[in-house]
Amino acid sequence: MNQPSLSRSEIDEPDHVRACDVVAMLAMLDWLISRIGPIDAMSATCLVMARESLATCAPPPPRPQ
Predict the structure, then answer these.
(1) Which conformational region is residue 25 in: left (phi greater than 0), alpha (psi within -120 to 50 degrees), or beta?
(2) What span, in angstroms and rounded, lies between the C-alpha atoms of 45 and 34?
(3) DSSP the chain
(4) Which of 15, 7, 22 lies closest to 59, judged by CA?
(5) What are the residue boundaries of the structural domains of the chain, listed by start?
(6) pLDDT tens, 32-59?
(7) How many C-alpha atoms does 23 have within 13 Å on its Cβ side?
(8) What is the pTM of this model?
């Protein structure tokens, strides 16, 4: 199985999560919540808590210079 190549920034800062990746994950959670909510309220509640946790732990977006 081939291993994906890492970009230079991922090698230099393995614990750093880019703001655009966090925004993408939040958008995916929003979509999942909207699809799961009508089917299973408990699962949707867990996804909402995961989204809130991610939003509070997310790095602030960089300021424009």
Answers:
(1) alpha
(2) 11
(3) -PPPPPPHHHHH-TT---HHHHHHHHHHHHHHHHHHTTT-HHHHHHHHHHHHHHHHHSPPPPPP-
(4) 22
(5) 23-58
(6) 999 999 999 999 999 999 999 998 877 6
(7) 6
(8) 0.65
